[in-house]
Amino acid sequence: MRPKVVITRKMPEEGLRLLDGKYTINLNEKDRPVTRNELKELLFDASALLCMLNDTVDEAILKGAPKLKIVSNLAVGTNNVDLKACTRMGIVVTNTPGVLTEATADLTFALLLAVTRRIVEGDRFIRDGKFDGWDPLLFVGGDLYGKTLGIIGMGRIGQAVARRARGFGMKIVYNNRKPVSEETARLLEASYAPLEEVIRQADFLTLHLPYYPEVHHLINGERLKIMKPGAYLINTARGAHLDEKSLVEHLKEKRIAGAALDVFENEPELAPSLTGLDNVVLVPHLGSASAHTRKKMAVMAAESICDLLDGRKPERVVNREVYEQE
Ligand code: GLV
Ligand code: GLV
After folding, report:
1. What is the mean pLDDT of residues 167-187?
2. Which residues, in sequence order, are CB contacts of 24 under 8 Å at separation 6+?
3. Measuring CA to CA, which residue among 77, 242, 54, 72 is closest to residue 152?
4. Domain check: are 120 and 247 in the same one?
5. Confidence of residue 326 (pLDDT cuts 50, 70, 90)
6. Mean of the pLDDT values across residues 204-220?
7. Relative to the CA of 98, which ligand 2 atom is closest?
8. Are residues 146 and 248 in the same domain?
9. Which ligand 1 atom is the nearest neighbour of the CA of 96?
10. Residue-number span of the structural domain to which 20 is assigned
11. For ligand 2, is residue 288 a contact (CB within 6 Å)?
């Protein structure tokens, strides 16, 4: 019998084609995520799972999947998967790093520009039929040139954002678990500073670190308080990095100038009143959503499954210990 591969959501054909014919595919054809119960039922005889960042793959789910060998997450972040439980059970977890770096950095800049230059507000204004000619005071926003971009998390995506920021004539300060190499810092013209210092100095603060429990609400009320009054906050990483309720209060009282969010603490739910604010731009988790990037992610996620089921070690293993413990 061919191994069964569960795919929890429709995805680009290029990825499906790699699996089709080789394995028994069980694809969720519905235009919504699978429920927890559906996932449980699907997995009982599955050898591989190709899942999305909004599927929670925890120990209870894994226990009902005795044949499961690989969890291939269609995302770079793997905070939806219990890595330790997977390792204990000998299940390999893979992700899709690298291919989405530039797309995510592009979206970060799109958001930064949109919130600063009030693009979404302007669009709404025109559609509402309110535009009656040029006005020197109409939707006056902020500048990027000469301003300081604070980057928290200087991995691949943080660095790609820094490269873009240089082109806009911005000054770059960053914080990361460890400073980047001198060579990289020099190329990016980025200087390292302690977390609070980055927050204090930033005219724009952008988050690019992975989510793990230690960084839950990294940007909490106390830290929002030390942001400059005219500063903007951008989040394309994970919603729970940020205390969303506290952010709403700060935005309401205009204690910071604005925010642009691609990710939310309890996706798809939003903090109350968030949608009522004019100084926030909201997009539905689109960081990697370019056609080319999604195609590459689907291919990469499918390749990991082919590798593992054909007896090879996939290239992008997240829980590397799973190989060491054998
Ligand atoms: C998107 O959020 C990802 O982790 O790939
Ligand atoms: C993700 O790819 C990162 O390292 O920032």
Report:
1. 98
2. 1, 2, 3, 4, 5
3. 242
4. yes
5. low
6. 97
7. 2
8. yes
9. 5
10. 4-98+291-324
11. no
Q: How are beta strands 24-27 and 48-51 bridged, if at all?
A: unpaired
Same domain, 141 and 84: no
253-312 pLDDT per residue, tens: 999 999 999 999 999 999 999 999 999 999 999 999 999 999 999 999 999 999 999 999
Distance CA 262, CA 149 (A): 18
Q: Using most ligand atoms within 8 A of CB, pick from 11, 51, 52, 53 the residue to mutate for ligand 1.
A: 53
CATH number of the domain to which 60 belongs: 3.40.50.720
Q: Residue 197: which residues within 8 A CB-CB, separation 6 or more?
A: 173, 175
The model carries a pTM of 0.96
Structure confidence at residue 1 (pLDDT): 86
Ligand 2: which of 73, 74, 76, 175 to mutate, judged by most atoms within 8 Å of the beta carbon?
76
Cβ of residue 157 lying under 6 Å from some atom of ligand 2: yes
List all residues whose CB is within 6 A of at least one atom of ligand 1. Answer: 53, 75-77, 100, 287-288
Handedness of CA 32, 33, 34, 35 (dihedral sign): negative
Q: Are residues 155 and 253 in the same domain?
A: yes
Specify the ligand 2 atom closest to the Cα of 158: 5
User: 283: phi > 0 → left, psi -120 to 50 → alpha, else beta; which?
Assistant: beta
Tell me: do 73 and 147 sit in the same domain: no
> Considering its fold, how many domains does the chain have in total?
2
Same domain as 254, residue 214: yes
Same domain? 116 vs 265? yes
Do 113 and 93 reside in the same domain of the chain? Answer: no
What residues act catalytically?
A: 238, 267, 285
| Mutate which of 51, 100, 211, 290 for ligand 1 pocket (most atoms within 8 A of beta carbon) | 100
pLDDT digits (tens, 9 = 90+) for 243-266: 999 999 999 999 999 999 999 999
Over residues 114-141, the mean pLDDT reads 98
Nearest atom (ligand 1) to Cα of 100: 5
